[in-house]
Amino acid sequence: MSVVVQNSRGWVLDACSLIDQGYSPCIRWRDKHKSHVKCCFKRQCFQLLKSHYSVNNTAAVDGGNADMLQKTDKASKKRKRKHGELNQGEIDSQVFHEKIRSVILEGTKSLVESAQSLGYLSGAADTVKDPLPSQECGLSALCGMAKELPLVDDEEQEERVQFLDAEDGCTSHVDLFSRVTENKADCASVVTLLGEEYVIPRHAAFLLSDFTRIQPLVHYGEKFDLIVVDPPWENKSVKRSRRYSSLPSSQLKRLPIPLVASPNCLVVTWVTNRPSHLRCVRDELYPHWGVQFVAEWFWVKVTTSGQFVFPLDSPHKKPYEVMVLGRYRSSADTSISSSDTPEPPVEDHRLIVSVPSALHSQKPALSEVLKSYIGPEAKCLELFARSLQPGWTSWGNEVLKFQHVNYFTLTPADDVPDSSKGEDCTDKPTVTPACGSPGESSPP
């Protein structure tokens, strides 16, 4: 099950199982022939056995501040600075950390102990020794090339959406850059796009484009009840690694949140541990978009034994990331807040504890933990996405990155009942599930 523990502190998630919920059943199209396959995300991506920057596994969730700050001589030599010299950003980070330290420590300890009592986070005995999957993602480069194509005027574009439910599995006609693409089927599909095979979850919609070509998402015409934003924040490590292009806050302000948000839409923004980014969201982006701040949550990263992945008090990297939650308040819809069905209150300082993916920038899906804060038929959107979720709409210049077949294990579904093998799931009536509960609509 994807949610292992839920209590007043937050949740413990099995992130890999949560991904797999969107891929049962699954069909694979090859040369216009369809076959049923069992599709699972590769579990070796979630087998973090040891803490980073720790000596003798001293990053345990038990306090132990002095031990947790131990580092190897090699690591300590990387950063040389005059004793006691901190810049303003580091001072701000230290102040913020001290403010929420007890929340992280006590909440994580409670959640991990509850999970361990159920046999989870007790260490991985049956580890998968296969190497991590890899795939050179050239999607952002393709988006850059697509910018050279002329924009299609909205009035001239007859269809704003295209579907992947062709009976013969043919996808050569699909234009991924200027129209939203949907899989309307009740099952996942392995299809060929741009010469590569990708796994598309059931009822998923996506637009592959960069920031300058986001208009088709606005023209899509949907209003969303939940918007998750994972901005490509500017920082030194990103510049050094060149893993992805970053955007300044002045550009992020131009995201069309007011154009795609429904009244009282819940907006969740991932933030790095730099206080300047946190202030940017709370004091600049949210007021500019018309979003009212309601809570701060924390994603706490632990090993398969329940230890922090980094020492809690490490001056460099922390074992947690911040999410800022807010509600979109449209000035034209002020009456909504006083209606007979007010939105559920969002508690502050909740924790999401999980083993992080070894793949860079792969965040845990938030569908399960947010479903009680949005309506049962909520429509959900992720911006700057690198993967898809069942029932969600996703946008980004690498939106298919973690959908490549290299990240999945595909095996013949010999155990699929004959009745389901005989059904063409693309011909079933479309019933879009609530985005907060992707597993609830799975066929038995």
UniProtKB/TrEMBL annotation:
<dbReference type="GO" id="GO:0009007">
    <property type="term" value="F:site-specific DNA-methyltransferase (adenine-specific) activity"/>
</dbReference>
<dbReference type="Pfam" id="PF05063">
    <property type="entry name" value="MT-A70"/>
</dbReference>
<comment type="similarity">
    <text>Belongs to the MT-A70-like family.</text>
</comment>
<feature type="compositionally biased region" description="Basic and acidic residues">
    <location>
        <begin position="418"/>
        <end position="427"/>
    </location>
</feature>
<dbReference type="InterPro" id="IPR007757">
    <property type="entry name" value="MT-A70-like"/>
</dbReference>
<dbReference type="GO" id="GO:0005829">
    <property type="term" value="C:cytosol"/>
</dbReference>
<dbReference type="GO" id="GO:0005634">
    <property type="term" value="C:nucleus"/>
</dbReference>
<dbReference type="GO" id="GO:0008173">
    <property type="term" value="F:RNA methyltransferase activity"/>
</dbReference>
<feature type="region of interest" description="Disordered">
    <location>
        <begin position="413"/>
        <end position="444"/>
    </location>
</feature>
<dbReference type="GO" id="GO:0032259">
    <property type="term" value="P:methylation"/>
</dbReference>
<protein>
    <recommendedName>
        <fullName>Methyltransferase like 4</fullName>
    </recommendedName>
</protein>
<dbReference type="GO" id="GO:0003676">
    <property type="term" value="F:nucleic acid binding"/>
</dbReference>
<dbReference type="InterPro" id="IPR002052">
    <property type="entry name" value="DNA_methylase_N6_adenine_CS"/>
</dbReference>
<dbReference type="InterPro" id="IPR029063">
    <property type="entry name" value="SAM-dependent_MTases_sf"/>
</dbReference>
